[in-house]
Amino acid sequence: MGEAHDFASVPTDVLLCDTFSQVPEDGNSLSLLLTRSQLFSQSLSAASSGSSRTSFQLSDCISCRAFRGKDPKDIGGYFKVIFYPLRGMLGATSYRQRITRTFRTEASRDREHNFNLAKTWAQKICQLSYEQGPPRLLPSPPRFLVLLNPRGGTGKALTLFETHVMPMLTEANAHFTLFVTERPNQAREVVQEQDLSTWDAIVVMSGDGLMFEVINGLMERPDWAKAIKKILSILPGGSGNALAASINHYSGHQQVTGTKLLTNCAFILCKGHPVPLDIVSLTTSSQQRIFSFLSLAWGFISDVDIESEKYRFMGYARFSIGTFVRLTALRTYRGRLSYLPASSEEKDTTCNGGSSSSDSKETQILVDSLLVPLDQPVPSHWHTVEDQFVLVLALYQSHLGAEHFTAPMIKGPGEGNIHLFYATSRISRKSLIKLFMAMEKGTHLDQEIPHLFHVPVQAFRIEPSESSGIMTVDGEVIDCSPIQGQIHCGLGNVISMGQGPHQ
């Protein structure tokens, strides 16, 4: 469509080519080229030097629409396109930043013809941007149930949703229902009781605690095997934001915090696709079943997490303060740690999104095929360590917090391994400081830290000798007592993005 223009190096897969002007600029003519992956713009007055040539990746586009001018006498046709490319100042961390461009055409004296030309461009850009990357597997427009905890973190989640997320969802033509929780476990009850077919995905804006509620609520439904497949998404609105930081990492973004992380995750929600999410099934000595997407911690890490609650008003800085306080009075915990190494031939056979259950009825239960009852000894081929521990951490996502890149070897949320970290009482305070400082960049495993161990496992058991310690699952406190768990590979689904060129 239209005549060819003099680009320094014209792409070979040009689909559309026309002359527009950019508004509200000076009205100079631009040559626009559209390929399957990029939109090119060049000022015709500078075409020979190429100094005014710009390009935009369609994979960064979330919206494009055509419209007419407000003045009935304006015969031009317009389209507005919105991109969120990764940008950062020289040497600084890059993150998604909003860029808009509005173009006007007056190719004809016919107002309707000009509008139709702009509409052709807008529709083609929308189509091609949707086709970038793997299939989205979500309807267009998608319908989201947004569960938001207004008291998470520093208590600004609702305001941040209104200022940073809602505009992007509106521009992306996503339909959403916002549910603001008023008390603990309300989100759990909502997903237990609601007809989930009303929505295409459940979006959680909070810290990791609300996602914990949602996953356990889904697993408590009579139709849990179907419900747990409901697509989930995370937006950071709490203090830790470990899952949000992990999804941000899997999507090829650099490590960021605050509103930068929120903008990245909102973009992932608009442009991502569902991928398998590992879930660990835990059983306590009281026979309680708990389902976890992130971690189980005992000792130093859980002590810091819970005892720093008094500093919640400080946001993520609460964990730094809590770490310092706990290092001054280091505790140790006697117990037994047993595990089934990932290198074992015995594996969870349900990987890649399956599930193992006890029967075919709707009330079936998820079977932990790698575990024996807690009152029986672990199988003989398991490994056992009996010692005085400073910390034990079972982690199945890359990040333990927005600034704790704890498991850099994890490249996606459904890899099927638990990464078991433990440190015995022989570890020094200096080594612990070194550990947590290096963990911000994920370089701690490259350093020599005596008495810190890392083992990929399929299942584990923790047996504290005393009940006085703090134990957490996904940051939520549970009784400090014997507990065991195994991973169920890809049991859930979460929205992420394939790793792109931006690492």
Automatic annotation (TrEMBL):
Residues 139-286 form the DAGKc domain. The keyword NADP does not apply. One of its GO terms (cellular component) is membrane. InterPro entries: ATP-NAD_kinase_N (IPR017438), Diacylglycerol_kinase_cat_dom (IPR001206), Lipid_Phosphate_FormReg (IPR050187), NAD/diacylglycerol_kinase_sf (IPR016064). It comes from the Eukaryota. Keywords: ATP-binding, Kinase, Membrane, Nucleotide-binding, Transferase. SUPFAM superfamilies: NAD kinase/diacylglycerol kinase-like. Its EC number is 2.7.1.91. One of its GO terms (biological process) is sphingosine biosynthetic process. Pfam families: DAGK_cat. It is found in: Endomembrane system. The keyword Nucleotide-binding applies. Its main location: membrane. One of its GO terms (molecular function) is sphingosine kinase activity. This is sphingosine kinase. It comes from Engystomops pustulosus (Tungara frog).
